[in-house]
Structures are given as structure tokens and as C-alpha cells.
Amino acid sequence: MTEVRTPQPRGVHTAVLRHAEAAPAALALVHGDQRVDYRTLTEASATLAGRLVGWGVKPGDIVPLLVPRGAHLVAVQLAVLMSGAAYATLDPRWPASRIEAILSQLDDPVVLGLPGGEPLGVTRTIAPEPLADLARAGAEDRFEPVSVELDDPAMVFFTSGSTGVPKGVLTPHRAVTRMFGPGGLDGFGPGRIAAQVAPAAWDMYAFELWGQLTAGGAVVVVDDNHLMPGRLRALVADDHVDTMWLTTSLFNLIVDEDLDAFEGLETLYVGGEKQSPRHVRMFLERFPGLPLWNGFGPAENCMLTSVHRMVPADTDIPSGIPVGVPVPGTTVVLLREDGSPAAPGERGEIVTFGPGVALGYLRNELLTRERFPELEVAGEKRRAYRTGDLGLFDDRGILHYHGRGDRQVKLSGNRIELGDIEAAAAATPGIRTCAAVARTDEGGTVDHIALVYTLVEGHSPTPREVRRHLATLLPAYAVPTRFEPMDELPRRENGKVDLTALERRPV
Questions:
Q1: Domain's final residue, options 281, 316, 351
Q2: Which of 34, 42, 189, 414 has the fewest CB atoms within 10 Å, counting from its CB?
Q3: Residue 117 buriedness (CB in 10 A; 0-12 / 13-18 / 19+)
Q4: Residue ranges in 326-473 assigned as alpha helix (H)
């Protein structure tokens, strides 16, 4: 068991307001030509919060938002929090059926959108006025933000459900603010500027946005759906961005295409997928002094569970680059199948405790009881989240990730972890990104394992050469029998590889 102390958790809007009082003229948001200070942001949000309350929004409500990413969305989100409610940001570009499936889980909510968005279920619209105008409009009759408890819901993140119905993760205020402030994560606080790149419906959006705004830093909102090297260069040069979060796949792409694009950053977090030792090695050779953090964690333990500052020696670890130590305020325990603690060096299920643990799944008590049980830690019963991920602690207390329990498959009587195949393939010369896919027959039995991959420009190893290299790293039964090069791997909206699409891909 490993634990790190936490900065004092606070209400999200309480923390933002505190910085607005201490440094009202400090930069909070940049979006296109807009530069918004803390006073303007909080006063504009207070105006919007007054409107929300007038429309019937009350503490404890969940307010779905169908508003595109931008400064206006940030003000609306902060307004919802000021009203004592929680928000659920939905992407207006999602299929109507997905939006309907989410709205059906809520009790006749006020659904906010832009004018013209009513067919998506929007019940109230807020035109995207300049935040300075909104701030002035509420100057004479200032709305008093509602006080909240740390356990009150702040936001809901909808993740893919195994039944096809999106699962809503209820995230409290404490989970969002536990990592930021004095003694918190590197790269957040006064004088620091982060890029907001993640999709607004994803929990890492909260990492980028509220991580800075609750700590006194600033955020540059990026409209681009896919960040390319040239845009990264401009963010650093023109907007002075110094802190970033990138999905592993996007990090790998930029390393391959334009490694120098990272020049000028001061802190970089990478995660969401297993790290590629080759790409990490290339980055560290070029930027030995730039902190490169491996970030790991599910939405149910908000944003991040552990971090690890990567060093060159990590790229030689056979099992892959470690995911490190728990973030502030988080406890991690590894449990065997029988529920007993795993010994150092022994694999177990990663189970988390602490203020980052979500309140549960919206309208799903059965799954909430299953995944968020009360477990005993150090003689005390505490609420936990069972991640379904596998890991082990080495003799230094560093956590190593070993894939998903549910990505273990049996083929010809042999148990195979697909993550192990991906780690071996990532170390194969010429391979840029990859995914191991278990293909099944009509009866659902695993028929074979395929390796789907993209190549580094200028490299063209044949499937036979890839197979030969994997045979030096994996037992014979774990070497894939099909090799399928692609120009690009399909991705979900959060930037991760779409494994479902690869499993269904015709061959």
C-alpha cells in the first residue's frame, strides 16, 4: 500500500473564486482573441448562474450542456457549479441516439445549449455573449454562489458501457481539486499556462481546465479536434503554454513527425495508453531536462491515479514503463483474486481509495455496489474503486501496469494478456502504434490473435520480420498469427485506440 498526502480539497468554484479575490486581474482564459481575467470569468459566470437559478436549477441537479468547447462553455460550467448543481458536458456532434440515451437517465433536467440546438433536447439556450458583457450585466445584482460540500457532485462523465448504454460517473468536488495547489502536481499554479485540448466530455478536460483555474494558473482553449505539431509550436510561442497533457498516441505521433515541436514546454503529461519505450527514449534524449510524466487512471478515480516521471532507464524495463506513485490524496492497494493484499512483485487488481473515488454510477446501484465496495485498509473500512486493471509494486514501491484483467484471453488452453503482446510489439523496430486484437469464431471462442499496427515513416518491416522479432520476446503461443499494417489506427473521441472497431474489422 502506498499513499501520498494531498493538498486540501475544496469546492471547484470556491477555489476559483478564491483566486479571483486574491488576483482579480490575473489571466484565467485565452480563447482565440479573447483574454479573460479571473474577475471577468467569475463575474460572467455569476450572471449566468443567476439565470440558471431563475430557470429552476437547484443544488443537487445535473445540468446537461450541449455547448461547443470555448471560453463560453467554461463560464457556463462554472455557473452551473456556482448554482450548487453538477454539469454533464455532452458533445453536440454525438449521434442523437447517444444524447437521448444520456438524457433519459436524468429527471427532466434543464438542458443548456446554443440557440438553434433545441432538436438535441435543449430546453434553454444561452447565446455566446462576450464574457466582459456578461460580467457587466451582473455587476449591479451580483449572484451569491451556493456553498457546497466536498462530497456534492460537481460533474458527470459518461463512459462507454458494456451494454451499449453510456455509464455516468458521478464525480464530487473533492475528486477534482485534490491534486492541485501547494504540494500538488507539477505544472499547475500562478504563472503557469496549460493548453485545453481534451474533449469537453472527458475527465482529462477537467484536469487541464480546473487543474489550472483552481490553482491560480491560466488555460488556453484549443478549438482544433486534433493537435498537430505546428499548432503545438504556436501554442508555446504565441500563447506561452508551458504545461500540457497528451494522449500517448498523440505524443508518439508528434515525436515521430516533429520532435522539436515540444521545445519551450516546462511540464508534459502523457497517458491514457501504455507508453512506447522508443518514443519516450527519443524524447528524453532530445529534452533531458523537461519533466515527462506518465499519467495513469480511470475516470472513476477522477483524472489520475498515479504519475511517474520517466527517465531513460525506464525504457529498458521488460514489462514496460512504470506508472509510478499515487497522486496526492490517493491510496493504491493491489488485491489477489481472493481479496487478500498482493505481495511486492506479485500482480494484483489495482484498487483505489481516497478523495478521488467517484460517488458511483448514475442510476446504476447494482454496478455501483460491485465496483465501489467498502474494503478494509489498515484495519479501517473505506470506500474503494476496483479498477479491473492489473499491476504490481516493485521493491521501491513503484507501480507497474500489467493490462486489464478483462483483456486476458485463452487460446488453445493458454492464458494470454493482450497488453503484453502490445508492449513487445511497441519495442519492434519500425512500428509506431499497435494493438493486439483477439478475434473470435461464431461461438465466441478466441480463434486467433491479430497484431494491427502502423509504421514509422521510412520503415517497412514485413509481417514475417515483425513475427520473427516478437518470437524473441514472447512465448510461442502468444505470438500473433495475423499481422495487419494500417495507415492509421481508428480512434475514439478521446484519442485512444478504438479496440472495438479493430475487433470488428473485416479481414
A1: 316
A2: 414
A3: middle
A4: 365-371, 418-426, 463-471
